[in-house]
Write a structure and sequence with these properties.
This is Dioxygenase. Belongs to the TfdA dioxygenase family. GO terms for molecular function: 2-oxoglutarate-dependent dioxygenase activity; metal ion binding. Its cofactor is Fe(2+). Keywords: Dioxygenase, Iron, Metal-binding, Oxidoreductase. This protein is of the alpha+beta class. It has 2 domains: 33 residues; 366 residues, Double-stranded beta-helix, CATH 3.60.130. A 7-stranded mixed β-sheet has the order 3-4-5-15-7-17-6. The protein has a 3-stranded antiparallel β-sheet with strand order 14-8-16. It has a 3-stranded antiparallel β-sheet with strand order 10-9-13. The chain is built from 10 helices and 17 strands. The radius of gyration is 21 Å and the shape is globular. The longest helix has 20 residues. Strand 3 and strand 4 form a beta hairpin. The N and C termini lie far apart (59 Å). The protein binds fe (ii) ion (FE2). Fe (ii) ion binds next to loops.
């Protein structure tokens, strides 16, 4: 895009901002401009993150982080929806893996299940060193255990991206910050949180249970978060299993829910081209409420408090009541959750989590804000299949022969 067109776009945004301000309508259009490198945060980059990037040859000389160019950041919701509508190839990694995962497990010192139903830590191995066969087996392990952890990791953002590409086409967010020169490596850093999180508001944003990007045509499956900077105390993350949430329901209620469709929405808002002054509008997408995992073949509950809006075909009150109950099943059953503290044994290294976003929800714990300590990492999300429900698929407990 030429400078002239960028200027025109900035003028358009300024005009809209002025109009919305005069009408006292809250529309945040500020993040539609200002793509490229940022110089506002580079001095605040935590030492561990800086060391990691320098060790792996990331060029920070132009600034940090980088945003997609202004011309790629959509202003209107129809443009944003178009970006998200493109089909991408997907190979269900793990489907052809050795069910015993012998290659992967022979490479690690210890396989430690953190809870009965969700979460496994692989100890004594570098994720970066795994070959394709081992990654294929890791794909199966993630699909079965929902989230897999690696502590004491030196993971370059380049290798993180490469591993993401193994699991699916990496999502390039049209407006999120990423590591310079590496679109797809989304920066997760409390310093960038727009609104200051306080003790009283710590349950908002990522502090709320959610799964990532359900408004995508093909929402992420395997998602890789590497935290290179971890607060001295706290900053944990929770995950909850969608397989187990489904298995918590009675067979009659399961039957009622199967085949139902949920409307999911995006986090970011955009303007309605035909009604730009009427507030922000999210991208929406219809997905099955119960979906089948292509690798395990198990059913999972695909709703979350963050982004699931309504159940199609039900009266608004019915939809709200049922969704709230389903959110509670995910959030209140402690036996289907795992809590991970990211702290490595070696303070110069980081920790990595790979979770299956299709069959889980997660929530960040904002308990370190009083200390003004940074938490910094990079996230890579691999897009998976178009969500589907196979009426012949089984639940996890059914497939494993476990009692109800
Ligand atoms: Fe998230």
């Amino acid at each position: 895009m030429s400078i002239e067109t960028t200027t025109q776009k900035s003028q358009e945004v300024n005009k809209l901002q002025a109009q919305t301000q005069s009408l006292k309508i809250e529309v945040d259009v500020s993040n539609r401009v200002g793509g490229g490198y940022s110089n506002n945060f580079i001095d605040k980059l935590p030492q561990n993150a800086r060391d990691r990037f320098e060790r792996h040859g990331v060029d920070l000389s132009k600034g940090y982080p980088e945003k997609p160019p202004s011309e790629q950041i959509p202003l209107y919701v129809d443009d944003a929806q178009k970006i998200r509508d493109k089909p991408v190839d997907y190979i269900p990694r793990g489907k052809n893996a050795d069910p015993e995962k012998k290659a992967l497990f022979s490479k690690v010192k210890q396989v430690k299940h953190l809870t009965k139903h969700i979460g496994t830590e692989l100890i004594g191995v570098q994720l970066a060193d795994l070959n394709e066969q081992e990654l294929e087996e890791l794909g199966l392990l993630i699909a079965e255990r929902v989230v897999v952890f690696f502590r004491d990791q030196d993971l370059s953002p380049q290798r993180q991206l490469q591993i993401g590409e193994f699991f699916g086409q990496v999502e390039h967010h049209p407006q999120q910050n990423h590591v310079p020169g590496l679109p797809g490596t989304t920066v997760i850093w409390n310093e960038l949180a727009k609104q200051k999180i306080t003790f009283k508001t710590a349950k908002s944003g990522t502090g709320r249970w959610h799964s990532d990007l359900p408004h995508e045509r093909q929402p992420p499956g395997v998602t890789i978060l590497h935290n290179d900077t971890i607060p001295s105390v706290g900053g944990d993350t929770f995950w909850s299993s969608g397989y187990a949430a489904y298995d918590k329901l009675s067979p009659e209620f399961q039957k009622f829910l199967e085949g139902k469709v949920v409307v999911q929405r995006s986090m970011h808002t955009y303007l309605d081209r035909d009604d730009p002054l009427n507030g922000g509008k999210q991208i929406t997408r219809e997905t099955p409420l119960v979906r089948t995992h292509p690798v395990t073949g198990w059913k999972s509950l695909y709703v979350n408090r963050g982004w699931s809006v309504s159940i199609k075909g039900l009266e608004p009150d019915e939809s709200k009541l049922i969704l709230n109950y389903l959110f509670d099943v995910y959030e209140k059953n402690l036996d289907i959750q795992v809590r991970f503290n990211w702290k490595p044994n070696d303070p110069k290294l980081g920790s990595t989590a790979l979770w299956d976003n299709r069959v889980s929800q997660h929530a960040a714990v904002w308990d370190y804000i009083d200390d003004n300590e940074p938490r910094h990492g990079t996230r890579v999300s691999a897009l998976a299949e178009v969500p589907y429900f196979d009426p012949n698929s089984k639940s996890q407990r059914e497939a494993l022969g476990l009692a109800n």
